[in-house]
Design goal:
alpha+beta; four-stranded antiparallel sheet; five-stranded antiparallel sheet; elongated; SH3 type barrels
Length: 220
């Protein structure tokens, strides 16, 4: 869904999120909407709250997130840095015949920070131990587009865990469930959309194709 995401992409076409009136803020044709428009129009010099991608040492994403959160508190930056997340998704893997759900980082070596970018907020994030820099063009941090943020958040909130496939076509696998339990076969085809695998099993002296769920086989 988001495999083509490249955090180094030039985001010069960034389209800021629209501002909506609350449901109880109705305007009639006789009202003076000048002050209301003033409230909705960004003030000159006002910095917008956006999401930025920060590069850090791979494997230290959670440690860096915690360090940034600590610096936000100790340096009084809650009005400029609002959220820090490590994009993750749940994944089911089969090992030694047992299923377990693990949390996998979507973009190893990257974290997301929602912030109003200025010299002070940049300094707090950039000088956090483990941070190697902001993603952007040259020395200019580039914010994520609204649709990119939505795709990441949707991926994180997906209720159906992905199944980790540790085998590929041509490899030997062991069937760990069903009538062919403990049979060894060869992977003939994979169907990721349906989470199905076709395995060629030698049955009564001849190869027989058996269609199985990803979770019913494991790599030999």
């Amino acid at each position: 869904m988001f495999d083509d995401f490249d955090p180094r992409e030039d985001d010069t076409d960034y389209d800021p999120e629209p501002v909506y009136l609350d449901s109880d803020e109705t305007v009639s044709e006789d009202d003076d909407i000048g002050p209301l428009l003033d409230d909705l129009t960004p003030k000159k010099g006002e910095v917008e709250k956006l999401w930025y991608v920060v590069h850090c040492y791979s494997g230290q994403e959670n440690k860096v997130r915690h360090s940034i959160e600590q610096r936000i508190e100790t340096m009084g930056m809650r009005d400029k840095i609002f959220d820090v997340i490590v994009p993750t998704e749940e994944e089911i893997e089969v090992k030694d015949g047992k299923r377990r759900t693990v949390e996998r980082r979507v973009f190893p070596g990257y974290i997301l920070v929602e912030m109003k970018m200025d010299e002070d907020s940049w300094y707090v994030v950039r000088n956090t131990p483990g941070v190697t820099g902001f993603v952007g063009m040259g020395n200019e941090p580039t914010p994520l587009r609204a649709e990119e943020v939505k795709q990441i958040m949707d991926r994180m909130s997906d209720e159906a865990p992905k199944i980790k496939v540790t085998f590929k076509v041509g490899q030997k696998v062991r069937i760990i469930d069903g009538p062919f339990n403990d049979f060894i076969g060869t992977v003939a085809a994979l169907d990721p959309d349906k989470s199905k695998v076709r395995v060629m099993v030698n049955f009564f002296g001849r190869d027989t194709p058996v269609e199985l769920d990803f979770l019913e086989v494991e790599k030999v």
